[in-house]
What we know:
Mean pLDDT: 87
Oligomer: single chain
Distance between the termini: 38 Å
Strand content: over 45%
Shape: elongated
Amino acid sequence: MKTVKISAIVLAMAGVFATSANAQSAKTNAWEGFYGQVGVGYGTVTPTIKDGTATIPAGFGGVIPVSLNATTSGQNVNTLNTAVANIAAGYNFAINDKFVVGLGVSYDPGASSGATGQLVTRAPTNPALGPLSGAAVGPTQNATYQMKNVYSITVNPGYTIDNDKLAYLMLGYTGATVGLSSQNIPYNTVNLTGYTVGLGYKQMITQSLYMLGEVKYASYGQKTANATAYGAVPVAQPVSANGAEFLVGVGYRF
């Protein structure tokens, strides 16, 4: 009886493996199905800081006789260069044995390293202001910024070179949070959104594991960062950015 039970178990397990194998072989494309992956690499971000405004109240600092709608501008803003980590998952839909269309989500956990720039505030050009007309108001502020919570949702059309190799494009929506601060402006954030495009390649290294390489570019539209300087001066600064990311990693093909 014991031998019969063991034989039944063996036959059942063989049936499960046979069903799984048949399901794999039934795929129209070897890259069809779910996947998950992790990667590490390098990222770079180039921000654009356009002229903003600072509303300076009358009497501020004991030297401003009237309320001023001053202009703020960024200068000497450095490009941000940072290490990145990435996690991603998605599903590839088979078109035929040579083409797939994937839907993927991607997220960079944590925050980038920081980069620096300067913020200058100038009074409006107005002869009635006398020596204040067009002059710098207060010292130049040294500012720091960083990127965090970078994510994307993409459509990924791919070409199956063979069962072990996949080349693909990435086209979609991306978002990120920019953190900004200076010695007189407390840390504040602004959420940027835009589009991303990229190229990728995957190479199987076992039946289920693959290695990958990706290059992605992102363009973030303009948003206004609002903060209060010196605890009394509202500042509104338009911010946008372009960035690129270079990744290598490993993944699992289900």
